[in-house]
Amino acid sequence: VNGAAVSRTNTSDEEIISFITKKAFAEKLLMEEHTRVPEKDKKAVREVMKELFHVSSVTEDEEVQMQDFRLYSQNLLRDFEELERSYRECPYPGKKVVESGKRLLRAVEPIQRSLEFFQTVSRRRDEFLDLAEDYEPVHAFFHGEQREIFQRAVDMLAIYDDSKTYIVDADLEDTVAQMRAILRKEQPYSDIPKLPELREKYMAAYMKVLQAESAPVLDGIGQARARVLEVLNTKEYAAEKKERWLSQFAELRDGAERCNNVSTLRSYKDKAEALKIRLLNEMDILDAQLAKKKAEEEARRQEKAAQALGVTVPEEQKPIVYKTRKTRNVTIRSMARTSSWRLEGPEDIDRVLSELRKALTAELAENDIVNVEF
């Protein structure tokens, strides 16, 4: 009708009767003799349905058989589309199988004529059977525990890759290589049971590295905390600030102790150093504010005393208004502007000291006091 094929798979019985009996469709309806589908083609479709969809077709009705095939095909296509979303989250195995399976099912989907449909499926029978065989382990992977095992291994290697610059450990590197070899296989399914044992070996080796790396980090946090506490204890506002400031160092230490990433762990030492400098700077600001307040109070006291005596204090004898001394806290590393010095002779020492002198002099040119933290 109007160039579109009409069959019981896409048209109701009532509509078909209307097409045949009503004059309105007399010029729009084109009828052709139905060609029976060869038995070998119907057999091929039944075989594909059994292997790919795990269903057995008992009907001999070609239209119904084609309709059933299309229904199961659409269900499988939805499964493939769901898996494609999973592949965007993690490099799970079987992606090529899913992509080729989609293309194969999509090629058959638009066919409306039963003879063409059966011939197409029959002609591509081997492709459908290969898909059934290849998709079986993929389906088992996503619907069993293998997916979780694979995901854990991927997550562990992501942590290792983020930290490998800081890691030198032969046992750990060998274990990582074995895990990576499995994860990169197109069909790793038979090797995935090896991953839990490799994961345990990885954890044992990685924890040794983590513990070795954590010692200097925790020490650095402790030193930064002790330095802030040392200065804070000399201040009149110590009781007000101590609990909150020390809790910030406790939070850093807790984060470092729970951290399972060497790269992230090392950053906690830098965070502690930055916190130390920030709190020292805050104390300098508070000290300046308190000194200014005391100076202003002293000036007012003297002025009131003079007024009480009926004396006018000459301008030159009035107390000098407090002037804030600009203080800057810096680290020796920021002044050295490098993480290491290479010395091969006295001239190298002179060069390093000259550069350090220039950096310190530049800081003093902009500040009244430069406090260098080591």
Element layout with pairings:
Elements: H1 13-21, H2 39-53, H3 62-87, H4 95-108, H5 114-123, H6 125-142, H7 146-163, H8 170-183, H9 195-232, H10 238-258, H11 262-308, E1 327-331, H12 332-336, H13 346-366, E2 369-373
Parallel strand pairs: 1-2
Task: Characterise the protein shown here.
The chain has 374 residues and is mainly alpha-helical. The protein has 13 helices and 2 strands. The chain is 68% helix and 3% strand. The protein has a two-stranded parallel sheet with strand order 1-2. The termini are far apart.
Brief account:
With 374 residues, this protein is mainly alpha-helical.
Poorly predicted runs are none
What is the string of SSEs from the N terminus onward?
HHHHHHHHHHHEHHE
Q: Please work out how many helical segments DSSP would assign.
A: 13
Bulk shape: elongated
Strand numbers in spatial order across the main sheet = 1-2
Largest sheet geometry: 2 strands, parallel
User: How many runs of DSSP E, i.e. beta strands?
Assistant: 2
Question: What attributes does this structure have?
Answer:
single chain; 374 residues; mainly alpha; two-stranded parallel sheet; 13 helices; 2 strands; 68% helix
